[in-house]
Structure formats: structure tokens, C-alpha cells
Amino acid sequence: MKFERSEEISNLLKDIKIPKMFHAVQKFKRDRVDPKTIPALVYEQLSRPEISETVKPGMEIAITAGSRGVANVDVITKAIVDFCKEKGASPFIVPAMGSHGGATPEGQLEVLAGFNITEETMGCPIKSSMETVLLGYSEYGKPVYQDKNAHEADGIILSCRIKPHNAFRGKYESGVLKMLVVGLGKQKGAESVHSDGMDNMARNIPANGKVALENSKVLFAIPCVENAYDETALIEAIPRDKIFDREPELLKIAASNMPSLLVGEADVLVVDEMGKNYSGTGVDPNISGTWSNDYVSGGLKVKRTCFLDLTDCSHGNANGMGLASIITARMFEKLDLNKIYMNSFTSTVLKSAMMPPVVANDKEAIQACIRTANRIDRNNVRMVRIKNTLHIGEIMLSESYYEDVVKGKYPGLTAVSEPVPLEFDEEGNLVN
User: What's residue 67's pLDDT?
Assistant: First the structure.
């Protein structure tokens, strides 16, 4: 998509003052698994008798791999593959990501390749298809689907991350059951779960999950939980019959690990990059406060937000851009509307796919946010800048926060530089 710059808009914004910024460090709880020990930890978990006895010689086993940027996902997946091989089984990987990747087999392979998950790196086949099998209907009348290749295998291993969802609250959010019925359900499964709206996701995920577990060959799950720094904090294998009981407990641990922007409120939030590898909506509203509906709340209380870029591994899928107040031309020209709309129409959340105003560069995006934010002190703008919502251990804050941070108003937040002007290149994009 091609952007055409408007001199009139540029002239309207050019005199808007951008505040000086300083670097700050946020400190959170940091339970962490050393990445070097992950293969051994996976092996230890899978060697537990109630888990290892489900993997038998000669079995063809499907292992799920999703579309999120899970820490060490390639290492974890490869360790599961190697364990199955050692047990004499024949593993293969299934892209389990609902409608992502444009809901095409090629697109979903492309997403996995962005996470270093390929047939070469994993040492096993990857079977990518959008063909599904109807397993039955939930107690609410929702059809339950499953990837055909996974369903025809001798067993399924659910590998995923457990984390609070970005649009609803329930006992089961982003985790094992969602991987089972949305990810492994492909586009049809994702549509089934989302079709009653986000306010019914909390009931549809376990209801569809019950049907899926009763009518497929799930062996066990092996989810991970991350800490506030996007690092692996926990990996645990869960027997098939314990999934419903254990997942809510792990979700509580994941929720307790969630970071936040410790200043709590801002006039403007600048997000350097959004992406499907960070969140289903490109940015995690648990952090940014940019929610797609009124069923949940939290995160930063902010008036205006700009997204400056889209990650390459999103492959044009900027579903979630509608949660921004402003986006840049650089991001606009990366959009693949087919992938965005496929994702949005499947989830039924149209707001996420709506087009925000587009301006020429980073500088104008920030200025547009400041200019349009109502009832703020434009000479003392409270502005927060983050790289993305998955990595907020290091952030930037405007000088209006500086004295309070230095005085210790925000426990866990430390200034590591003094306020200086942001630097922009000749094209008006940030360089520092």
C-alpha cells in the first residue's frame, strides 16, 4: 500500500512541541529458566511416568506450534521432537494458529519459519493444512473442529504458552484449551469460539475444549509460563486428564508475572513496533491499555497511542492497528489487508482492523497524538515510549516524570539517564 504525504497535515503538526525524554528501568519479579537448561527440563518433564508412557514406539505424533513470539519456542519444540524420536515415535509439527498467516497453509508455514521452526531446524516434517475434521458440538451448540493431520495421528502433544488474554477474562484464557480449540481448530475452530463475541469466550473455550478432549487423541500438554521480561519462567507437562484442573492454576502464576508500565497514567504512549509475535492485537492491552472492547480493562491509562512500525514476522498482519490513535506511513505500507481482515472477521472484532489516521513519519505521529489529546498540558506532556509490549524492562519517559521518578514515587522504576530531546533523521523517524 502506498502512502501520499499531505503538506497541509505536515504544516499543521510541525510546531507541536515534543518533550525531552529519559531512559528508565522497570524492575519486576524474575523467576527464570536458563535457556541452556531448557532441553534437559523438557526431557525431565516428559520423562515422568504418567507422561512418558503415553509415547510409544511407532506412534505418529502431532506437536503444536503457534503464532506467538514465545520465548525459546524453537528450543522447546525441538526438545519435544527429540524426546518423541528417542521413544521410537515419528513426530511432526502442526501450525496451530487459527486464522493467522492469512488462513493459508503457506502463510502459516511462513509464520513458523519466522520463529526458526522449519523442517530443517526441527528435524521432522511440518504438516500445514487448513483442512479440518468436525469433532462434534459443544453444550452451547458450537461446532468443534480439529486439524485433519493432527486428528489422524496416533497422538497429539499440545505445546503452548499460558498467559492472560488480551480481550476477555476467565478460568481459561490464552493457554492449553485455546491452543486445542482455536489454534488446532484452524480458521473454522477459531470462528466457532469467537462467534458469540468476546464476552462469551470464557464459556466457549472450555465447552469446546471438553468436546475436543473427548473426541481426539491428545496425549498431554506441555505449556510454558513466562516472566515479566519475556523469559521462560516455568515449563510443565500436564497429563491429559489434569488439563482442566491445572491450567487455571498456571494462569494465576502467569498473571502474577505480568509486567506493567509503573507510572500508571500518560497523555501519550509511543509504541515503536506492534506485531502478531507480541500479541493477537499487535500490542498487549494488558500493558498498553488499548482495549478492543468494554469487557476488560487495565493497563496504562492513556489518552493517545501511536504505533510506529509492524514487525516483519507479522507478514503484513496488523490486526490490532485499530487500537492505535495514529500510525505511520512506514507501517501503513507494510499492511496486508487480506491477512488483517481474515483475522478480524474470524474473531468478529472489527475494531482491531479499523484504519487509524496515517501520517508521514514518527515525528508527526507523536505530534499528532499530542495535538489531539484533550485536556492535557502541552508544555508538560506525560509521554511513555516502549519498544513493544513484550519488552518493557527498559522504557523512555518524558521529563514531566523525571523528578517523581528520582524521588522514588514509583517503586521499581529507576531513571538511568537525564532528559534529552528525541533525535529524528532527515525523514522524521526516530534514531535513538
Answer: 87
Sign of the Cα torsion 327, 331, 336, 342 reads negative
Side chain identity, residue 70: V
Contact 51, 134 (CB under 8 A): no
Determine the Cα–Cα distance for residues 371 and 368; give it in Å rounded to an integer.
5
Contact at 8 Å (CB) between 363 and 250?
Answer: no
SS3 163: strand
Residue type, 67: S
Q: State how far the alpha carbon of 57 is from the alpha carbons of 53, 74, 222, in Å.
A: 10, 24, 20
Kindly state the percentage of the chain with pLDDT values over 90.
94
Sheet holding 301-307: strands in order across?
Answer: 358-359, 326-328, 301-307, 265-271, 383-386, 394-398, 21-26, 413-415
CA distances from 188 to 22, 85, 103, 143, 183 (A): 47, 31, 10, 9, 10
- CB-based contacts of 252, cutoff 8 Å, min separation 6: none
Bridge partners of 65, per DSSP, are 95
Calpha distance 341→311 (Å, rounded): 18
pLDDT of residue 296: 85
Mean pLDDT of the chain: 96
Stated pTM of the model: 0.90
What's the grid cell of residue 425? 533523521
> Measured between alpha carbons, how far is 52 from 46 in angstroms, rounded to an integer?
6
Instruction: Answer for the pair 275, 67: CB distance below 8 angstroms, yes or no.
Output: no
Q: Which three cell numbers stand for residue 376?
A: 492535557
Q: In 234-379, where does DSSP find H-type helix?
A: 243-257, 285-288, 329-332, 337-347, 362-372
* CB burial string 46-61: b at 16+ within 10 A, e below: beeeebbebbeeebeb
Query: Quick one: cell of 351?
Result: 475494531
**How far apart (Å, rounded) are the C-alpha atoms in residues 263 and 149?**
48
Look up residue 144 and give its three cell numbers: 468443534
Give every CB contact of residue 245 below 8 A, 6+ residues apart in sequence: none
